[in-house]
């Protein structure tokens, strides 16, 4: 699960010899912190970091793609 503070995401997908597919993703910085909220409460895009803008879905998006 991506957290409000997640900035980077990388994923890979692989198929074994049969019909099974496997997917793995790495998020940075990490999350899954006990007793912490996954998302921040507040007005959408009110806390976008420097170098980000508010996109059409009201999410902060980086000005550059990596």
Automatic annotation (TrEMBL):
<protein>
    <recommendedName>
        <fullName>SCP domain-containing protein</fullName>
    </recommendedName>
</protein>
<dbReference type="InterPro" id="IPR035940">
    <property type="entry name" value="CAP_sf"/>
</dbReference>
């Amino acid at each position: 699960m991506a957290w409000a503070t997640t900035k980077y995401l990388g994923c890979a997908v692989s198929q074994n010899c049969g019909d099974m597919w496997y997917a793995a993703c790495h998020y940075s910085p990490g999350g899954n912190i006990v007793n912490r909220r996954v998302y921040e409460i507040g007005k959408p895009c009110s806390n976008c970091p420097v170098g980000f803008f508010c996109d059409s879905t009201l999410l902060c998006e980086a000005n550059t793609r990596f």
